Amino acid sequence: MPDRPRVWVSQPLFADIVGRLDEYFDVVSTTTVSQHAPEAVAAALREADGALVTLNDAVGAAQIAGASRLRAVANVGVGYNNLDLAALSAAGILASNTPDVLTETTADFGFALMMATARRITEAERWLRDGHWRQWSFESLLGSDIHGATLGILGMGRIGRGIARRAGGFGMRVLYHNRSRLPDEVEREHGARYVGFEALFEQADHLILVLPYAPENYHLVDARALARLRPHATLTNIARGGLIDEDALADALAGGRLAAAGLDVFEGEPAVNPRLLALPNVVLTPHIASGSLATRRAMVALAVANLIAALDRGPDAGRPPSPLNADAVARARKPGA
Ligand code: DGY
């Protein structure tokens, strides 16, 4: 009997769901949460036909160079900036991600983080826990309103639209900027108006970043962009840390040129810029926007389904539900291509 395909699972990911792989594959699991060194990822992939990875695991040309058996990489996450899609496509390796299943949960969290930032919730809690609350005071810890304010959404994909829908319930005026403008009916449905990048920064009371990260977006929100925000504005980021120049952000926050920031993602995560840690007007969370139990389980289930199908097993053999580079892989795999 021929060898069963081998699969590497890079992190602990709900054993009962990952266990579905056992029916088809020999599975090498990782039992503790790991920040694998690039060489360790390469070594694991060298022995694998498929892999289930997360944003902790960068898979680029160097990691797949010796991976002659590798045919599929399933990312447990909608963002896939940890994957070098061009390198994977050229090598005929099918990549997939987990869209849709996390949209509403992530939009919930983005809204919550924006509200916590505007209303200074974590700062107030720290103040209370530190024993500063001696008497109720009319003028302490005043925040800014969400209802009736102008929301700026940078990136109007699925999650951006989810946030726009929530904003409607709060009577917000919704502006957005996107690579391409949405059709009129989608704008109408979400009560959202397209504006230019600069206008978005200039007009938003609360700006939220929900766009995918790509190298050309590195430090898109730099000192110049931040200078366009009004001093009472807040900035929330649930996309990727590399979008913001964190030192420029710390300057703006410390200098009173921006009221507050809510950050779920960081450029060097899990390390956080110490200047941000020291500022009271920043709400910091450890990349948990998609982190409800049900959604994290749904993400793993989708990634597992992607991997099984991409390795030509199971009821959807050859047809993974959410591939990223199916056409490019088909071309690369075609004999003589
Ligand atoms: C994603 O899905 O891209 C999140 O950032 C990780 O859960």
Structure description:
Helices cover about 35% and strands about 15% of the residues. With about 325 residues, the protein is α/β, with parallel strands linked by helices. The protein has two domains: about 5-100 and about 295-335, Rossmann fold, CATH 3.40.50; about 105-285, 3-Layer(aba) Sandwich (Rossmann fold). It has a seven-stranded parallel sheet with strand order 8-7-6-9-10-11-12, with helices on both faces. Strands 2-1-3-4-5 form a five-stranded parallel sheet. Bound molecules: (2R)-2,3-dihydroxypropanoic acid (DGY).
Question: Topology, pairings included?
Answer:
Layout: E1 6-9, H1 15-18, E2 26-29, H2 38-46, E3 50-53, H3 61-64, E4 72-75, H4 85-90, E5 94-96, H5 103-118, H6 121-129, E6 150-154, H7 158-169, E7 173-177, H8 184-190, E8 192-194, H9 197-203, E9 206-209, H10 223-228, E10 234-237, H11 246-254, E11 260-263, H12 274-278, E12 282-284, H13 293-310, H14 326-333
Parallel strand pairs: 1-2, 1-3, 3-4, 4-5, 6-7, 6-9, 7-8, 9-10, 10-11, 11-12
The chain binds (2R)-2,3-dihydroxypropanoic acid (DGY).
Residues 55, 77-79, 102, 290 line the site of (2R)-2,3-dihydroxypropanoic acid (DGY).
